[in-house]
Amino acid sequence: MTAHSNYRELFEVAAASSAAKDFLPKLKIAAIEQFEAVGFPTTRDEDWHFTSVSPIAERTFRPARPAATSLTSDDIARFTYGQDDWHLLVFVNGRYEPALSSFAELDVDAQVMTFGEALKEAPELLAERLGTLAPAKQAFTALNTAFMADGVVIRVPKDIELETPIHILYLTDSHATNASQHPRTLVVAERHAKVTLVETFATIGGGTYFTNHVAEVVVGDGARVDHYKVQREGGEAFHVGTTQATQGRDSIYHAFSFAIGAQLSRTNVYSKLLGENAEVRLNGLYALEEAQHADHQTFVEHIAPSCSSREVYKGILDGTSHGVFNGKVFVDPQAQKTDGKQTNHALLIGDGAKVDTKPQLEIFADDVKCTHGATVGRLDQMALFYLKSRGIGGDRARALLTYAFAAEVLELIELEPLKVALEALLFERFIPPETV
After folding, report:
1. Rounded CA separation 158/190 (Å)
2. Is pLDDT at 1 greater than 50 in this prediction?
3. Does residue 436 surpass a pLDDT of 50?
4. 137 CA to centre of own chain
5. Where are the domains of the chain?
6. How many whole angstroms separate alpha carbon 407 and alpha carbon 413?
7. C-beta of residue 294 within 8 angstroms of C-beta of residue 260
């Protein structure tokens, strides 16, 4: 029996127990049919040339079964960045946990709902938007659409600014071993709206499991969305995440990806600039050790004129880890006066570590400024010598230089509590207590 037929059987079981009506079953059926048609990607596919998903494809991860959790607020405290005043939505093994969640004062016109609540309170919003930005063409997006059972829907009406960040925390525990979760995020920021979103993926208890997440983000005219994703899954986990954004005129979309977890992870971030003077910033940092594999793919489509894009991605690779970065920039013939810049740097600190980087520019307009640059190297020996000459030990000198390399990209985070928390995570990883 193939993995595809296994997932079809699991889909039929889930569909039989679902009470959803109207548009959703049709969307899900089309998605599982598309998954069966395309199958899991292989290294023969250009976008997956450096990443084999065989460890995922060769087994079948059943959807995580909802069960009561014994976790408390103390258990999740280390994942909330010390911010008790943020809006917090907690999911455990794919199930929303209201007892662990909390809301600060929310503008009455804004909507922050779980997927189940949205089906009841705003079905028209889901019917209009769900699956339109991230259609189920690719295998993992199709699989998410077919099995999505919960997630978060955010709608910020025009001229409304949500000053308090919204934090979505997806946790797994030992009950999710050999299971999968397919959370979905939908964000609609209407004209001149503003919202900050943090999505954290983490584990308590370890085990092998599969997280397959999809986010669709609509950034209206003059709106701004700051979107931070923190992937710190367990060391035996698999993680695939896809974010698709569309931007209107004079809009700003800032996405930051931070990845230190999972044995195999893939993060896709795509943005389509449809309105004039739109700005997108896609930044990220990954830090790998042992045999971890992390793949980051970005794709910026400049469709409208006078738009700008900035990308800065950095990777730190220890042990025998493998990093992949593929950044695509497409400039439409109508997108004159495009200003795009892409930078990718990787630091190899493990003798067996390696990285594959592939910046791509496709430019079909005349009046543009587009550049890209990529470097792969090891620690600066002159800098190491200087630190040692000042009485700093070799291990500590290497740790400090590694931390400095990472901290540079973290400075691009504008949400200060998150920046401080991520800096602390890196400090712990690269500067062990005995060297402090």
Report:
1. 5
2. no
3. no
4. 19
5. 3-275, 379-436
6. 10
7. no
**Listed range (53-57, 332-336, 390-394) with the worst mean pLDDT:** 390-394
Report, as an integer, the average pLDDT of 146-161. 95
Written as six digits, the tokens of 4 are: 């595809």
Does the predicted TM-score (pTM) go above 0.85?
yes
Can you read off the two tokens belonging to residue 36? 């069966």
Q: What is the 3-state secondary structure (H, E, C) of the chain?
A: CCHHHHHHHHHHHHHHCCCCCCHHHHHHHHHHHHHHHHCCCCCCCHHHCCCCCHHHHCCCCEECCCCCCCCCHHHHHHHCCCCCCCEEEEEECCEECHHHCECCCCCCCCEEEEHHHHHHHCHHHHHHHCCCCCCCCCHHHHHHHHHCCCEEEEEECCCCECCCCEEEEEEECHHHCCEEECCEEEEEECCCCEEEEEEEEEECCCCCCEEEEEEEEEECCCCEEEEEEEEECCCCCEEEEEEEEEECCCCEEEEEEEECCCCEEEEEEEEEECCCCCEEEEEEEEEECCCCEEEEEEEEEECCCCCEEEEEEEEEECCCCEEEEEEEEEECCCCCCEEEEEEEEEEECCCCCEEEEEEEEEECCCCEEEEEEEEEECCCHHHHHHHHHCCCCHHHHHHHHHHHHHHHHHCCCCCHHHHHHHHHHHHHHHCCHHHC
Structure confidence at residue 400 (pLDDT)? 82
Is the per-residue pLDDT at 187 higher than 50?
Answer: yes
Each residue's pLDDT tens digit, 342-359: 999 999 999 999 999 988
Question: In this model, does residue 34 exceed pLDDT 60?
Answer: yes
Q: Which residue has the tokens 């907690």?
A: 90
Question: What are 226's strand-pairing partners?
Answer: 196, 254
Nearest CA among 226, 297, 298, 234 for reference residue 260: 234
89-116 pLDDT, tens digit per residue, is 999 999 999 999 997 777 678 999 998 8
400/406 Cα distance (integer angstroms): 10
Task: State the angle between helix axes of 416-430 and 394-410 in degrees (0 to 180), rounded to the nearest 10.
Answer: 160
The encoded tokens of residue 325 equal 């970065």
Residue 101 φ/ψ, nearest 5 degrees: -100, 160
